[in-house]
């Protein structure tokens, strides 16, 4: 869509109303009027307006239940029940809410909202405008064309012709023919009995349209289908009239009346105040009334909404005149390469991507480099391509490699541009490419290239949409550009026929690789401006982007592992597993394969007749951890010993054998890979090897940490945030007694025990403290009475009493939990204390179990996400702080709330002071942050 092109947004108001009504529990305003649908509708509309803007906008409603379609077919929608009594008084309030936002409210007697949407879309498109219909209603999919798209209001996913074809099996212009044949039980559209969507689509594709099919009905070979079509031909025609939207419905208001305009803040604030919507007043920044200055209001404020560019594109809408993806240029001579470098520096921005022969950035060999300096203008520079093995006759010379510029010359030509502070380099998953280019790649290439400054489209997306969807380039391209990039399998083949990328023919390699750079540049152009409007600019600029270099250096540094100690641990684990197996066989009364879930299930439930067994779909007994834990809690020794055996087996395979295999022979260290955009909470994850799941409270876990050692002349220094999530709980819920306890450095669990069990501070025993500790941490995860009871070994009734006492003592915590669930239900996301959006999947699910899990995630996410952001802030500031203090410590690992450093022996005290100062000073909360520091020759001692 051109930036100067008018853009009409049509919101399906009726869909919003019923979604809001069914998503929220009953709510009433001070005079007793039901308002849950009003609250949900107002929240969704306000939230929508912060993300989307158009030159014109309207909310369209159904006027009444009967329309002209009831005259055509009296049973049309006749089976639908009347609206619930508590919803009826909310219809007028919802229209009032729409007007308070300054948005045109459209409805017309005798017509459905869908007809009005169709008519406005037709007229606006004919006048040269673009239309976005905010609805996922399948009946509106018939309207999709190059000028009209739908936008799913929950998934925020555009619905265009490919999505319509996926739904109906035909293009949008044939949808009404398919619906006429298949009917619709929801609306009581009869259709033709015995014909479903797939059959209807196949018939329409074969015969062109409904009339073409009916004209040839007597020629249909299948007897039942032929008879059904002949007997119900008129019913099919009636059905088509019912499902086809009237694009010539009279327009109740002219197009000019739909011009977007800022709301009158006083009117909107008064409306919200009258309904008792205090949380929305706060969220929209309207507590101060009409005279509140715009500069002091948060980004949800109406002034922010009005400031959106009038022609801003909806998410996922590529420009109508966007350049084609390719063809791209293959660069095989130095003059051409120099020209590309000059053009990139003149442009000031260049997208960059590397092709290598390994996912391990520290071992990968460059195969090629791609550049893009404008949409559709990209190139591929091959540097490591060779002939396919087995080509050429044995009696002839082997075929030569394709013409390429020597790698050293390519890197020499690129270096000035890649290190130029005036040229922004745009990458996707920049950490990988920076590691590859940051080390010597060829003889004569001097040292590696320090690529800077950079932007990372993966992290830009992640900063705005953590938990909402994946952030891989292909997924983002399809989501935001409507373009599916060339698959890797298409150019390399699959299975045994797969060839390395270095052996792909250059024309195919160029089409694949240069497209990656092109897509990255287009994603950057589309997503980077959204950072400001989504309120994620500071998060990206000051945290996520700065983490690229920090994590790159940590991965390159790695951590030393004592292979001999690992071997000793492995021998000990093996011996203990043998002893455990013998004990397990003794308890079972016979030998069996302890590692076989099937054999174990037969022993437990067929032979020993233990209670609680459940068979899976394949008929085998379930023996997962939860089953064994339940049996062990009932006092059965065999499952308890199996759990011990499984833990040792996992530790041995994952950390003893797996870790030993990943020690780099060149430096005796392991180099983990930190994934930056995987978790929904903003936490980092660690792979190859995963160093974040080593148990820290077991003897075995401690032993494994003992194998991580400092190099000679150094010690390991561990810095761990103390009870950071509980501190965030005290901060967010503003609990005075917990704040006081943290301020005085009291034992928080003893203080909690004293508060909820009404004990004197000095009279708290170990059991009371244990219970308090369990609920302190459990409450952050939304633990139920059943879950708490299982943890404490008490009945659910007693556990509920403890939870009730907890909330009675700390009512602010319950209020905060309810606020978070409400925020997730209304917005689809919750916010960390620092403003990061964490999207909650399944919060509106009709499945009670899934919705319950989502609610628990909504409660937990701000605490995990807040903790993740605090430690990331500390990590981002740490290198500079150490450098300015002229200290030589290296940050090696981040594991949850802990940072691990390798420090020269003579700098330990100074380093500890700087680390503590940085970690405790990165955020200002209502309670102090505390970092605990330890040191030692290995990780176990330091921790």
From TrEMBL:
Example of a GO MF term: DNA-directed DNA polymerase activity
Keywords, in A-Z order: DNA damage, DNA repair, DNA replication, DNA-binding, DNA-directed DNA polymerase, Exonuclease, Hydrolase, Nuclease, Nucleotidyltransferase, Transferase
Ranges that cross the membrane: none
Enzyme class, spelled out: transferase
EC number: 2.7.7.7
Leader sequence segment: none
Swiss-Prot/TrEMBL catalytic activity: DNA(n) + a 2'-deoxyribonucleoside 5'-triphosphate = DNA(n+1) + diphosphate
Domain 3'-5' exonuclease: 328-532
5'-3' exonuclease domain mapped to chain residues: 4-261
Pfam families: 5_3_exonuc (PF01367), 5_3_exonuc_N (PF02739), DNA_pol_A (PF00476), DNA_pol_A_exo1 (PF01612)
Domain DNA-directed DNA polymerase family A palm: 701-907
Cited InterPro entries: 3'-5'_exonuclease_dom (IPR002562), 5-3_exonucl_a-hlix_arch_N (IPR020046), 5-3_exonuclease (IPR002421), 5-3_exonuclease_C_sf (IPR036279), DNA-dir_DNA_pol_A_CS (IPR019760), DNA-dir_DNA_pol_A_palm_dom (IPR001098), DNA/RNA_pol_sf (IPR043502), DNA_polI_H3TH (IPR020045)
Gene3D superfamilies the UniProt entry points to: 3.30.70.370, 5' to 3' exonuclease, C-terminal subdomain, 5'-nuclease, Ribonuclease H-like superfamily/Ribonuclease H, Taq DNA Polymerase, Chain T, domain 4
Family stated for the protein in its record: Belongs to the DNA polymerase type-A family.
Subunit record text: Single-chain monomer with multiple functions.
Protein role: In addition to polymerase activity, this DNA polymerase exhibits 3'-5' and 5'-3' exonuclease activity.
Record protein name field: DNA polymerase I
Origin organism lineage: Bacteria, Pseudomonadati, Pseudomonadota, Alphaproteobacteria, Acetobacterales
Name of the gene encoding the protein in the UniProt record: polA
